[in-house]
């Protein structure tokens, strides 16, 4: 009885006071990442009132010119945190607290954390207006749900099913066969190929994996979405399942292993593999001992069936039959040598001074953002001991003269002093990170950086300040 009352008290309500229509759902495959939340439509305009989905308190507010833009974090007593992203404005009490912090610290972009007692909120309380701030590509509400302690991502739609109408089953368009080189053939070939289900009957021999092209749809909107639950059966035996109900923050890049990245880059279409390759640790991919591969080693019919469902239990079934047909399997490719790149291990390749694990990147927003090396989350997950050195644009003479004092630099340093990485937000961030890239490639230490003379006044002295 008590448990039922508690669950009722923690029941989530819609963040908007109109029927929810989605522009994107949780776990949609994207290049290099999964979609981390749901995108709620706001009639292509800003200024829609937004409300807390459950009781809790404002734990964090972020303000920036890229990324989330303006965002509100509400921590709930059930161990979850809801995040409301790309806002136009905050509720008055939140806006006042943000302004006080910005003026006190002379910054615009910032992350502000609040104690539990400062700004409590109740379910359905107004917290701000929808917008188009940060790296948004149009007015909408990007809504995320996190496990507070771990940061793991959850599907907000699972908590808001009562506010969304969806009676449309996912579409399943085609499958792709992946014969293992030297160990399998499909339809008399050893190369990956796409097939439609309408042919019905195919031939195979040896070890073969499969992938499926599928998208979900919802009532009243033209958008296509990722499919929540994918299952592959062989002769009524479940050989693979993927239920995208949650995701650790650190595993986004494994999207390129689960999805057929090469196929996507050529056609902009994702085929999601129904087998798990070495190095892919996505927790929602489930297989037996065969890792999702099917062994066709008997002269008989194998009945395969894809079952694809959404969070509302709308379901589509596609079947095909494979006849085990003995034929030559060819020769296994030889993978040897120190330069072989394998998905089952961390690869550190270097030749003629070029290192593939040291690749700088930048976002040319205003101000710029740039980085090189691992993120702080990646360092923590790998257990790498490190320290953080920080410096600020507002203390740099050139930045003051340029009136570009908004910015921050973070330098990650190993226990032995070697430089591990650098993140910069501010004017000419990409130029600063380039220097760090060169230093990392030559295994320089923070002492080497400290002993390097930098021209005065230049923005590069922001990096030097971090080494002091």
How many DSSP-defined strands?
Answer: 32
Cα(first) to Cα(last) distance is 61 Å
Q: What kind of assembly state do the chains in view correspond to?
A: single chain
- As for the number of domains, it is 3
Low-pLDDT stretches = 1-9
The CATH class of the largest domain is identified as Mainly Beta
Full CATH superfamily name of the largest domain: Glucose Permease (Domain IIA)
Shape: flat
Q: Proportion of β residues?
A: 35-45%
Q: Pairing-aware structural class of the strands and helices?
A: alpha+beta
Q: CATH topology of the largest domain, which one?
A: Glucose Permease (Domain IIA)
Profile the largest sheet: 10 strands, antiparallel
Rounded to an integer in angstroms, the radius of gyration calculated over CA atoms is 26 Å
Mean pLDDT: 91
Q: Give the helix tally.
A: 9
Helix content: 10-25%
CATH architecture of the largest domain: Distorted Sandwich
In short:
With 468 residues, the protein is an alpha+beta fold.
Can you tag this structure with a few keywords?
3 domains, alpha+beta, 10-stranded antiparallel beta sheet, single chain, Enolase-like, domain 1, 468 residues, 15% helix, Glucose Permease (Domain IIA)
Topology:
Layout: H1 2-9, E1 22-24, E2 29-30, E3 33-34, E4 38-41, E5 49-51, E6 56-63, E7 70-75, E8 80-87, E9 89-90, H2 92-105, E10 110-113, E11 120-121, E12 126-129, E13 140-147, E14 153-154, E15 171-186, E16 193-195, E17 201-215, E18 229-234, E19 237-243, E20 246-247, H3 255-258, H4 261-267, E21 272-273, E22 285-287, E23 294-296, E24 301-309, E25 315-324, E26 350-351, E27 354-355, E28 361-363, E29 369-372, H5 376-382, E30 386-392, H6 397-402, E31 408-414, E32 419-425, H7 429-441, H8 446-450, H9 461-467
Parallel strand pairs: 17-25
Antiparallel strand pairs: 1-4, 2-3, 4-13, 5-12, 6-7, 6-10, 6-11, 7-8, 8-13, 9-12, 13-14, 14-20, 15-16, 15-17, 17-21, 17-23, 18-19, 18-24, 19-22, 24-25, 26-27, 28-29, 29-32, 30-31, 31-32
